[in-house]
Design a protein that fits this description.
alpha+beta; 6-stranded mixed beta sheet; globular; 6 strands
Length: 274
Amino acid sequence: GPAVAELCEGASRMAQLSMLSNRERASARQQSVQLEALRKMLLAMVQDVRVVLIELADHLEDLRFALRSANAEASRATAGMTRDIFAPLANRLGVWQLKWELEDLAFRILEPDTYRTIARALDEKRLDRSRYIDALIALIKGELARAGIAAEVSGRPKHLYSIYKKMLRKGVGIEALHDVRAVRVLVDDAKDCYAALGLVHHLWQPIPKEFDDYIAKPKPNKYRSLHTAVIGPEGRAVEVQIRTHEMHQYSELGVAAHWRYKEDSRDRGLDGKI
């Protein structure tokens, strides 16, 4: 039908434009400016944001194939395009599930030795960390129930590329990061988020400068959540994320989670979401 035909045509145009990413002869600053312009062009040229989501999913399949490919040069080219264009696009739209997988796969292809080092460091402590997190979840669940707060509590996997970026940004090793051990709390409404935060801070000492309120001040892509880090049991640092179920849905799927597409939407409708 015409609706699907339009999506296919838009995805085809977007794929052709993304191939214009040629960074070999540009300076570092020129590359940054060119890539930012390209990302904006890719977003602005589509009238239906679903075209971007289709292209992101398609590129993710290419990247999964590249990981198994014997053609190292082609694999690195695909991974480079991921890091330069597609992962930032997923970030702009708040489609975190795609963003995380795109970044981790590209990281694995482009910097395999560093990837293996971080993965090995996490694997060596996986069983210990799993037992610790299970005990922590049980404790938080019990305290929330006693406070009359309905909540889901789970362990949160940390993505390797985000660990790597934080190590670079802070100039520290993996042992110094506060969010290798992490817990996520999902509640029914915003007031319960702050009540749960108060309970967590009552249980354990907060780590200075490690609290972010993205509910009062959401990120540009509309991401909302409370982030805190505390000195948990046995003196170990733990990150705790607290949000509502609705906020969590948006944090996982971005614009795809809150679909407001209308037949007469135009570029400005997309621009308002990024």
